[in-house]
Write a structure and sequence with these properties.
Layout lengths: L2 H11 L4 H11 L5 H15 L10 H19 L5 H9 L9 H19 L3 H11 L5 H8 L3 H21 L4 H5 L5 H6 L4
Helix pairs in contact: 2-3, 3-4, 6-9, 7-8, 7-9, 8-9
Length: about 190
């Protein structure tokens, strides 16, 4: 990434949060002077500059984390650290935009459930659904790749989406019953194939 691109990235993802970081430092590390805060912010920019920006998904959280680490480093290097500063460092809580661990686990479970639902679709429906939703192909491109008409692709996608939505609405324990509803799987073999 060239220098101009780095400037633009920092201006877009880090700079907008500077005032919030300064306020956060004033509130949570009251023993810092205005000059100390200026120095921390400047050092944070220096640390962020060489980072691989493509790996940073949340500039705000990255900025807060960088400043927090700098405060901790400053305390470790100092020969005399005021007792209240140690308490302030321990009390620093970074506001994260990351989902809570429970939400991450729930999302992983939902993703696994969705994979199972898609895997249980009839082969042609599943293939059309995967090409549309995962590879983002148009109906025409799907028809060409699968060697079927666009109308058949549309039928497969409609049936696949209906099954996925029914299975998701049914809940994990009832997923199998939603898929095996009378007349669904048997009819897939007879309809919509060219």
């Amino acid at each position: 990434m060239d220098t101009a691109a780095r400037h633009r990235w920092i201006a877009a993802h880090i700079l907008p949060h500077e005032a919030e970081v300064r306020g956060w430092l004033r509130r949570h590390v009251g023993t810092l002077s205005a000059a100390d805060i200026d120095d921390l912010i400047q050092e944070a920019y220096a640390r962020i500059w060489p980072a691989k920006f493509a790996a940073i998904t949340q500039g705000r959280a990255y900025f807060f984390t960088t400043v927090r680490h700098l405060v901790q480093e400053q305390a470790r290097r100092a020969r005399i650290v005021p007792m209240e500063r140690l308490g302030e460092i321990d009390a620093l809580r970074i506001i994260s935009e990351e989902p809570e661990p429970e939400r991450k686990v729930g999302a992983r479970q939902e993703l696994g459930r969705l994979r199972d639902i898609v895997a249980d679709l009839p082969a042609q429906c599943r293939r059309a659904f995967e090409l549309r939703k995962f590879e983002e192909l148009s109906q025409r491109a799907i028809a060409e790749r699968m060697g079927i008409s666009e109308k058949t692709v549309e039928n497969h996608l409609t049936r696949a989406l209906a099954r996925v939505l029914d299975a998701l609405a049914a809940g994990p324990g009832e997923q199998g019953r939603a898929r095996e509803a009378p007349g669904t799987r048997a009819n897939d073999a007879n309809h919509g194939n060219d």
